Amino acid sequence: MTINVMIVDDHVLLLESLKNILDNDTDIHVTSTISDPSFLKQKITSHYPDIVVMDIRIKSYNGLELTKNILEFMPQLSVIILSGYDSEEYIEAAYRIGASAFVSKDKSNEILLTTIKQVHLGYKIFPKTNVDRKDEMLTPKELEVLSLIAKDKSNKEISSELFVSKRTVEHHISSIISKLEVDSRVGAVVTAIKKGLLTIN
Amino acid sequence: MQKKYIISIILILIWFLGFYMYFSYNSLEDTYQFHNKLKNITIFPLINNLLLVICTNIYHYSTFFLGAVFILTGIYVYIKKTESIIVSNFFRLMGVIGISITFSKPSSLNLFPAKEIEIFATGLAPYFLIVFFEYFPVSSKPTILQKFKNFVLAMGLAANLIYYASLFFPSIDNLFMNIIRMLLVINILITCFICLNLIIKQWKYNHLWIKNQLLILYSSLIISFSPILFFSIIPGGIFQLPSIPFSYSIISIIMLPIALGYLLTKQEVIDLNRSIRSNIDLILSISLTFLFTNIFFLLNTTITIHRLQLNFLLLISFLIFLFIYRLLKPLKLQNQQKKMRELQKEKTIIIQQLKGDKYLFSCATLITGLINKVIEVNDVCMIWKDNIPLILYRSGIFNEMKETDVFIQQLFTLNLENSDIKIIGNYHVLPIFIEGKNLGFIVIGQKKNLTRIDKEEMHYLEKIQSDASDIFFNAQSLLSLEQKLLLSQQETNTADYFNFILLKELEEEKKRLSIFMHDEVLQNLLFLLNKVNTLSKSKIDVSELEQSLIYNISEVREMCNELYPLIVEDLGLEMSLQAFKRKIHTTHNVRIISNYNLSFKIIPKSLAMNLFRIIKELIHNAIKHSSATNITLSIEEMNNFLTVKVEDDGLGFIIPDDSSLLKQNNMGLVTIKRKIHLLNGNFHIHSELNVGTFVMVEIPIERSGSIDH
Description:
The complex is a heterodimer of chains A (201) and B (709). With 201 residues, chain A is of the alpha/beta class. Chain A folds into 2 domains: 3-127, Rossmann fold; 132-195, Orthogonal Bundle (Arc Repressor Mutant, subunit A). Chain A has 9 helices and 7 strands, in the order βαβαβββαβαβααααα. In chain A, the strands form 2 sheets. A 5-stranded parallel sheet of chain A has the order 2-1-3-6-7, sandwiched between helices. Chain A has a two-stranded antiparallel ribbon with strand order 4-5. Chain B is flat, with a radius of gyration of 40 Å. At the A-B interface, helix 1, helix 4, helix 8 and helix 9 of A face helix 18, helix 19 and helix 20 of B.
């Protein structure tokens, strides 16, 4: 079984390295790499890939719109959105237009490889968003962050107190918010107290 | 002919039909006791008869008058603002109510087709009322309203159907009529309840200027309906006491269409409180007069005029007084105005003469005129030596004799210590001092009658000298002011244009930088991260390198977003705002409640980008400056206008003007205003200390290409 893959990305170095990595896998064959999507449809009809790996922004093109166009004209094709952003809204938008998977560019190449294989098997792979995290437990780290929020600390203060980056703190908070099914820091604290996750001294 | 005129004429014709039906049928027979009483009073037969005629006419025709007011107000507003949705709804509403009121009397006499028309109009009126309040004072369409709207329409149509069905069963006609009456009354009650509920809710959730409109609406409702309630329904209907017939009390309803029409045609808000306050003396004196005369009449038992009649008379005389007073007021003002006009004329003449760059020269001519009015002289010369020595005016000997040139040359270099009039040779020299500096001279030669200048004339000359100093001083400052004005105007124009270009350029620059960082720096970093990932499979420890890369990637992403939020171009305004909201929720202790009502309108990308930035800045302001805990954001599209409202419950602040904002280096609000101005939009801000801040931005969707990129 060989999976024919086409990569669309305007960053030539990244394109080449992706091609090498994918080609190293015996199951995958990269049929073509495209850095200018002007003739995307013709290229697809001539190469017949099973899967298209599409960057979300290609110069002046919008990867999401390109995907929509391709899928309208070849609905059986699977498209994996590769994105420099991992904002929830991008994931949602990718899901809505009918892409088969969403992979953030800062994830390791293995994830892309497994995603390609799973998509070929017919799965849809999207990073977890708010909606499907609600029953998860809070991790100890997240509980720690939550207790600091309850003490009215800003993200900056929390990051210096826990020796992690601001970005990590934000990540923790957004996962707390989605796990507790609330929509803000304040709501998280209130819900946590109600659920007995936090006690006030 | 335009559609609006045709519809208006049809409406008027329908009104006329109702009027004519009643007029030709009516025998003006009187059933109301009050009129019979009036007939019996013999004290003032003339006034009494007049009163009788007026009252009988009001009694019979008040509904037609009222109907006409409704229809005409509707037509007036409609013709003035045909294109507005709310006005066309208002027009329909006024039309059906007007027709329904007009035909109530002919219908009670069973004239054909009055009943048909009345039932039709009354059936439709509740529906149009709800439709109207959907848009007034602001557009609000709760879903429950949609249901009620259809229900009310169905009820109205059902009443019509039942009426036509009743024509086939003449035997039980009465039963049918009762059902129809019930249906219509219930329908109207339901509608009134819903609409009242709606406007009371509007009061709760809206802002000062809408509240002011609502205040006018409420007071017009109260004025309209309280006479019916207090003079007719409550005494007559509930207590079975003698009451004033509806025909009289109903007249006050004219307030309602007039107030609504006013609100719709004049968008600016009238300050009800202030207009009452400015007329308080009049209102107070009238009501006190009423009070005292009534007390007087109560105590004095010898007077037998009916009290109601008395008050009516008083009211009429007040109205006549006010009318005549208004009419004659100009007489009093006329004298004043005449004088003012003369002064104005003088002023314009002087200003006209002062205009242009020859201020000093025309001043000199004016002063010569002044001198000649006092003493008739042949030879006058005026010299100015501020920067370049100038001869402002010369006549007589100074014009004809070359010898005088030498003298003038001497004067150019002469500097006097004080402003005393000097006699040099044959000439009187009047030095002109401005701010302590000797800037010029007036030289006077011989008088026309060749006599000497006497003491009194000398005195006049001194006066002229000081006046001339004043005039020259003013002329000079005027000149310099105008030059400064011109200069600053030019500067402002260039600055405005420069600002515009700068804003555009700044936006371009940000975009370039952002795309560069995103497409080059970020991709390179990601590529490096990929490489490092592959390396990590070997034995070398690269975790530190990896962490640093991940950190840099997130920093660059953030910066890109800050500079030029590409997400707006990729996913549109709504999704971007959602992402922004989520981000704020993780970083600040604040709740943002958002409402989008964009009805699938496609917003141009450049506008979306600008709006996103504006909203972002407004929300940041609310968090940063007012420590708000709840922020409400709503975006609505209506008639190609986007309305953005941002409201917070923070500390509030006293809104400073632009220049002081700039001085505080607080560019945010000024930039927002500037941007909205360039987008042809409007910006309202209202802030109350300890209550919160409300900002409303309105921007047209179509013509928003000013800062296009």
